[in-house]
Amino acid sequence: MTSEHRSPQSHQLARNTLASYGRFLVAFLVLACLTPWVTRVLGDERYGLWVLLLAVGGYLELLDMGLAGATVKHLGGTAQKPLAVRRRIVATLGRAYARVTCLTVVVAIVALAIFLNGYPLPESLRWSATWAGIGIVGRIVVQLPGSFAAGVLAAHERLDWVNGVRAAGWLATAALQVGVLWYGGGLIALAFTQVLVATLESAALWCVTRTRFDEFRWSRAIDGELARELRRFSTWSVLVNVCAVVIARTDPIVVGLSLPLSAVTLYAIPLRIAEQLLLLCKQSINCFTPIFSRLHRENQQQQLTLNYTESLRRSLGLGVSLTIAIAWQAEPLLRCWMGPEFASSAGVLRVLALAVLARVAQEVAGNLLGMTGRLRIVAIGMVVTAMLNLGLSLVGIAWLGSLGVAVATLLATLLAGWGIVVRSAHRELKVSAIELFRRLAPRLALATIVQLLVLAIGDALLSASHLLSVVALIGTSVALFGLTYDARRMWHVIGRSRAVGDMIQHRLGWTRVPCIPPGARRP
Fold first, then answer.
1. CA nearest 244: which of 375, 128, 389, 82?
2. How far apart (Å, rounded) are the C-alpha atoms in residues 271 and 360?
3. Residue 497: is it exposed, middle or buried by C-beta count within 10 angstroms (0-12/13-18/19+)?
4. What is the distance between the alpha carbons of residues 174 and 172, in angstroms, rounded to a whole number?
5. What is the DSSP annotation of 182-236?
6. Is the pTM of the predicted complex or chain greater than 0.70?
7. Over the stretch 205-260, which tens digit does the pLDDT of each residue have?
8. Residue 151 in contact with residue 90, Cβ under 8 Å?
């Protein structure tokens, strides 16, 4: 069986982007609907423990050694190479994944034992923490084969299949969690439902990849040079992943060590919203990952610059609109969604939303540098960011409490992420940051003014006492921001759709209007 015939690149990018946003929408709806209910069922103390266990599990996910990104980098753009060459690449990556899986099991057991013995847990929660931790470890281990298959699919620019499987996994997780908690389950049941879903996801991804691509077969032949390069790539990738987890997962631990477990819950909810904002912005960024790898391999510098600019334009537009909406509606959103006691976390949510906006440009630049062999620069920038974040968090929590931890995340991203990673990407492409700002600033400013007017009018007309009204106002303001920001593209799409509609009606005999081909100017 030969590899499938690829669709035109623009169409495939559109499908990948739509699938990514669709998966995110499913995940967002699941979290939005389940989080308040799960928090009430478990209670603040048990939910805070659950957040801490997930934070520790985030460190264990680093043990993939960056092999998912390495799979995209080394397999992307190799469709024209002989099948034997592609099989050697896949076999080398598969052997690396097998070794990482064995390492994960050993390190995860040791890390879980250290956490359970070192963290001052109440005696009534120790048994639940132990078995819930084992469940989280099991989920991480069974995810690795699925990550390998997803990397192969991403290298072939078929993120739509990956996101379809992930979306189904989120729906299955929601159904199982509702079921186990409804019938009296607790932390242990939550953890083992994740193990089951992760197993099904990995099996589905593995079957799809094995069916669709010839190179995804077992082979004894490996590429020695690639194995050595993987070790170098993994070193820098691990540093990047470690720092990303330190930035994202250490904040709840710092809060938990200095404040009660209930304070972890109050911080974790704004942090979860901020994480979802970042994930939403990264859906478009991730779709450009295999494109960057392929264009770099083909030495198409001009196209690489154009795709970087397009990725930055899309992600910044979405990031700015979401940050404005969330910052404006932070207090009513938390109060209507989670309850009146969470309204005090509105300041934390606003600062974390700004930190997400600062992180977006860094993610775009890091994505480009990683796929063009400059991952060392990304690692250095992330190391400096993580060190600043940790140091400033320890200082900030003493002065401002939980708000100080959020401010530390924002400052660290601005100082190190932009100063090192973004500047290095612009030097690599020989693109002026000032020129990019001049291109984007007018449209961003106009769209921002429109969104602020919509939010102000909405506050005056709508009641902020219902979650639906808050969400409707946020969605409307973001949509109008997008229409203003992308007005020229939207007008082109509308004109093209009208031309296609005229053509279809003419073919069906419903109208005598002459057929106007797509893209042609209407009289």
1. 389
2. 16
3. exposed
4. 5
5. HTT--HHHHHHHHHHHHHHHHHHHHHHHHHH-TT-S--S---HHHHHHHHHHHHH
6. no
7. 888 887 777 666 665 655 556 666 655 565 666 667 667 766 766 777 788 777 77
8. no
